[in-house]
Amino acid sequence: MIKVALLPAGSTSDEAARHLFGDTPVEYRYYSVIADVFLSTVSGETDYSVIPIENTIEGSVSLHADWLVHEVDLPIQAEWVYPSIQNLIGRLAETAGPDGSPDFSKITKVFSHPVAMAQCTRFLREYLPHAERETVGSTTEGIRIVKENPGNGWAAIGTLGGARLHGLDVLRAQVTDHNNNYTRFLLVGREPFTLRRSDKAKTSILVTLPEDYPGALHQVLSAFAWRRINLSRIESRPTKKKLGSYYFFIDLEMSLETVLLPAAIAEIEAIGCQVRILGSYPSFAWET
């Protein structure tokens, strides 16, 4: 049976993983922090890790990207997109007003993952400006803390699945600032993902420019442009070696098995760039 590491049960990662694997028998192993998710696959305890890497509202999840680059050597085997729908979760009995509906003034503190919290900034500012905000390792952890501390007027931001898992109430559904809030997930591990097929393939690479080559980034982009290789993302991140030293995280909408992409990579290596292949993999879009 396939073993998959991910953030806690009831989190968006949990829902997204189940969407990808469908009816395939999978043993899900849950961890409270992303470092343990990665390390379980590095050690061989699990076959894959599920990593949230990018969000419509918040952009890249830098911590997860840095782990993928600096801490582990696990190839990307698939990517998929899943809607991130956040809800305000707590105990209606603690927060109900005279009419029986939630009275947000009774909520004193809100818990959630920092990315999920940031996705609901407008709602928090309008309805819960008085409430203290505390970030935790996952949305499910926030819900669990609320469950284990009744009587404090605490609430959490998380998924419907997390609310059901811990037996709490949904005080306000869909509190995300934007309706088109999606998260891009990566499946990383040593074995190719073959359970589903996709007509769309992508390749992710890491490019470090030569320090003594003016215009190197322009030449890198030109190598892809004249071959009509589309870049779906390019992002600079510090190499952590010295101030002002950066690498470029580039997602390309083409498989490494084509003729054009290896030729483009060879061209940029010829000018002194260091290129690391992070993975060439199927890409699955969200289907409503």
From TrEMBL:
Residues 2-190 form the Prephenate dehydratase domain. It catalyses: prephenate + H(+) = 3-phenylpyruvate + CO2 + H2O. It comes from the Bacteria. Pathway: Amino-acid biosynthesis; L-phenylalanine biosynthesis; phenylpyruvate from prephenate: step 1/1. The keyword Amino-acid biosynthesis applies. The keyword Amino-acid biosynthesis applies. Its EC number is 4.2.1.51. It holds the Pfam family ACT. InterPro entries: ACT-like_dom_sf, ACT_dom, Chor_mutase/pphenate_deHydtase, Preph_deHydtase, Preph_deHydtase_CS. Keywords: Amino-acid biosynthesis, Aromatic amino acid biosynthesis, Lyase, Phenylalanine biosynthesis. PROSITE patterns: ACT, PREPHENATE_DEHYDR_2, PREPHENATE_DEHYDR_3. It is an enzyme of class 4 (lyase). GO terms for molecular function: prephenate dehydratase activity. Residues 205-282 form the ACT domain. NCBIfam families: PRK11898.1. PANTHER family: PREPHENATE DEHYDRATASE P PROTEIN, PREPHENATE DEHYDRATASE-RELATED. This is Prephenate dehydratase. It comes from Thermobacillus xylanilyticus. The gene is txxe 3304-pheA.
